[in-house]
Design brief:
The complex is a heterotrimer of chains A (100), B (344) and C (173). Chain B is mainly α and 344 residues long. Helix content of chain B is 64%, strand content 2%. Chain C has 173 residues and is mainly α. The chains are: A mainly alpha (100), B mainly alpha (344), C mainly alpha (173).
């Protein structure tokens, strides 16, 4: 049997990987993938703690996170396509029109 | 004999071995059946040289393929090009792991505890099948993309769009059956179909879900990319679609995946709608014969349809999927929900 | 046995996630992330949450990632390009790098803290590992005092996202 701590540690590591990906990468697609990693790290925490407390609420929250992630991915990718049409690049540093 | 693992483990490994090889053999048999039926439909004789009536033709084909050169386009993405056929074939085989095909058996008293004729009975089996089916898309998309060829890319794009569109109707058809059965385990769904109405009509979900069965079969044909929905490989437009650039055994893997997928879709349809291994006359330990008969009939239906119907146009396919099949599946689901509530 | 499975899945999840962030081909990143989701699904199975494991595969790996794959394919970005000429001279803000270091520090701190507290073992509650967890999830999800309202609100969210995606990605004429 694996203690709860291990799952939480794993989740923390994954979350940090995702966060550094968001900060370090210069490609909007990879940035969005990093956000998905972060969401998954959080899901893992919910399911692990839900199992620890003996309720299904953790799994239900995970279910909602997945739904929201799907909506986020759809809108986010639509934005990425629209941006790419305008600038022919996906580097977040290139979109500075509102930054003076 | 002390060095052997316990008998149930051995029996289970043996079962996995047998099922895997049965799937490969059934794919070979399907290739032969397809060529033979096609030939008779077109008033020809078909393969008749290798073995009795050409039954060994698929094995000759495989040996030929093995000796062919493995080609790879220069601009292809090496890694993804190599794993695409593996994903395709693995997904096709994996889905069969949860399909039950017979009652429990002790192998004529060899085992103390009876084991079910099924690799594993998970309590979310129907969803597992759905999940693995949705993984199969990746093999095709990756094959299309990594080949770096326009025909492959178009074939891959078309097929993934088609599979995603029809997956919805497929899933909703499954949901209706789940509601009726009140279980996600295929074994329990089959057991729920035992017995008859008025002594002669079997309690198959086919009779409670005629529309659902139709939707499932149409979506299943689209999922396996078979005629009349075989756009990924519409020869006249796309050469061979996503596997244009594949040769030798990696092509054989795609070919194998297509036929194993057909067998899986038919086996799941049998379990969900046709009562699985249940049938009259045969003793319990021979029940799997009924399963094979039903799967065979569905497979024959597949082949028959392929050589009878012309291919759809791509926009017609999408329109049919989204504007007709999906609403029909939703209505079927709502009607089933109402029925279940009313019966309670 | 379970511990070995945990280590295998955890290692797989960490390595694939690192590679998602660490290498430059978006197509490979997407495929590696799918592998990472698979590893997480394995962990959910270990946590007696088979339903969540399967939805993880169906929704994340089967639907969301296909969207990503489509966009990468359609935009045809083989790999991350160098900074465009307009901003090539400018250095990337140093704040970002500091932030990345901070996030790694956060992870280290979490690992340190969590490995010290004695927050323990899973309850051996037979109900928690119940076979009919799908039934339990369903009745909790649709209960009046449960998540029924959130569930309905989510459907509106999805509708809005769908319309938004169509409007945003449409070609302007």
């Amino acid at each position: 049997m694996v203690p709860l701590n291990y799952y939480l540690i794993l989740s923390g590591i994954l979350f940090a990987i995702g966060t550094s990906g968001v900060f370090l990468r210069r490609n909007l697609i990879t940035v969005m993938l990093s956000i998905e990693i972060m969401l998954n790290a959080v899901n893992l925490t919910f399911v692990a703690v839900g199992r620890y407390l003996g309720t299904v609420d953790g799994q239900i929250i995970t279910f909602f996170v997945m739904t929201v992630a799907a909506a986020e991915a759809a809108v986010g990718l639509a934005l990425v396509i629209a941006l790419f049409r305008h600038r022919e690049t996906l580097s977040p540093d290139a979109f500075t029109a509102l930054k003076w | 004999m002390g060095w052997l693992p316990p008998a149930p483990v051995v029996a289970h490994l043996g079962l996995i071995f047998v099922i895997f090889n049965m799937l490969v053999l059934s794919a070979a048999f399907m290739v032969w059946l397809e060529r033979k039926v096609c030939a008779y439909i077109q008033d020809r004789v078909g393969p008749n040289r290798v073995g009795f009536e050409g039954v060994l033709q698929p094995f000759a084909d495989v040996i030929k393929l093995m000796f062919k050169e493995q080609l790879r386009p220069k601009a292809a993405d090496t890694l993804l090009f190599a794993i695409a056929p593996v994903i395709s074939a693995a997904a096709a085989f994996a889905a069969f792991a949860v399909v039950p095909f017979g009652t429990e058996t002790t192998l004529f008293g060899l085992l103390d505890e009876p084991i079910p004729l099924q690799i594993t009975d998970v309590n979310v089996a129907v969803l597992v099948i759905f999940a693995i089916t949705s993984m199969g898309v990746y093999g095709i998309v990756l094959a299309g993309w990594s080949s770096n060829s326009k025909y492959s890319l178009l074939g891959g794009l078309r097929s993934s769009a088609q599979m995603i569109s029809y997956e919805l109707a497929y899933g909703l058809a499954l949901a209706a059956v789940i509601m009726l059965a009140g279980s996600l385990s295929l074994r329990e769904i089959v057991m729920n179909q035992a017995g008859t109405w008025w002594g002669f009509i079997p309690k198959w979900y086919l009779f409670l879900q005629p529309a659902g069965f139709l939707i499932y079969m149409i979506a299943g044909v689209a999922e396996t990319n078979r005629a009349p929905f075989d756009f990924p490989e519409a020869e006249q437009e796309l050469v061979a679609g996503y596997h244009t650039e594949y040769s030798s055994m990696s092509f054989a893997l795609f070919f194998l995946a297509e036929y194993v997928n057909m067998v899986t879709v038919s086996a799941v349809a049998t379990s969900l709608y046709l009562g699985g291994w249940l049938g009259p006359f045969l003793p319990d330990w021979l029940a799997w014969v009924w399963f094979l008969v039903k799967v065979f009939l569905l497979l024959f239906f597949y082949v028959w349809m392929r050589w009878t119907l012309p291919r759809y146009r791509y926009d017609q396919l999408m329109e049919f999927g989204w504007k007709w099949l999906l609403p029909a599946a939703v209505i079927n689901l709502l009607a089933t929900a109402a029925l279940v509530l009313w019966l309670e | 046995m379970e511990v070995i499975a945990f280590y295998i899945f955890a290692l797989l999840a960490i390595v694939t996630s690192l590679l998602v962030v660490g290498q430059r081909n978006p197509m490979h990143s997407v495929m590696l992330l799918i592998a990472s989701f698979g590893a997480l699904a394995g962990l959910y199975v270990l946590l007696d949450a088979p339903f969540t494991a399967v939805t993880q595969i169906i929704i994340y790996a089967g639907a969301i990632m296909v969207l990503f794959l489509f966009v990468v394919m359609l935009l045809n970005l083989p790999r991350e390009e160098p900074a465009p000429p307009a901003i090539a001279g400018r250095a990337r803000p140093a704040g970002l790098k500091i932030a990345a270091v901070l996030s790694l520090l956060l992870a280290a701190e979490l690992v340190w803290a969590l490995s010290r507290i004695g927050l323990g073992w899973f309850a051996q509650d037979p109900a928690a590992a119940s076979v009919s967890s799908v039934t339990r999830i369903g009745s909790r999800l649709f209960a009046q005092d449960g998540y029924a309202f959130a569930f309905e609100a989510t459907s509106i969210l999805i509708l809005v996202a769908m319309i938004g995606a169509v409007v945003l990605a449409r070609k302007e004429h």
